[in-house]
Amino acid sequence: MLKNSKDITIDELISCVSNLKYRGFRFVTASCADNRDGTFSLYYHFDKQLELENIALTVSRDTAIPCITTLYLCAFLVENEMKELFGLTIENIAIDYEGRMFLTEDAPREPMTYGANILIERKEEES
User: Fold this and answer.
1) Closest Cα partner for 20 from 8, 37, 32?
2) E-assigned strand segments in the chain
3) Model-level pTM?
4) Sheet holding 39-48, edge to edge
5) What is the distance between the terminal CA atoms of the chain, rounded to a whole angstrom?
6) Residue 118 phi/psi, 5° resolution?
7) 15-49 pLDDT tens trace
8) Which CATH superfamily is domain 1-127 in?
């Protein structure tokens, strides 16, 4: 468990983030972890005067996650990352790369999920 962490539900996400913004916290980043049971742990990290506050929630793959870019525009980067690399549904991202921020068209889908079918091939060195 993270220090200064609060477990919330998906329905509380926007109000909780809004409260942190109102209290003067800046958004640092968000983290995502595949729990290997069809759920994902999401952690949102905020800072105020070198003190971190963390929000934790667990969602299923098909959960529609509201974006927080309406409150913190800079969150568009990590929200695109979670959408693209973990296959999560994040609604209404202010700047949405539609799955092409990191991955090319022929890249494996959802490469950070457990069981992603990724093959690493060693390329021969050129002489």
Assistant:
1) 8
2) 5-7, 26-34, 39-48, 51-60, 64-66, 89-91
3) 0.85
4) 5-7, 51-60, 39-48, 26-34
5) 51
6) -115, 130
7) 999 999 999 999 999 999 999 999 999 999 999 99
8) NADH:ubiquinone oxidoreductase Nqo5 subunit (3.30.460.80)
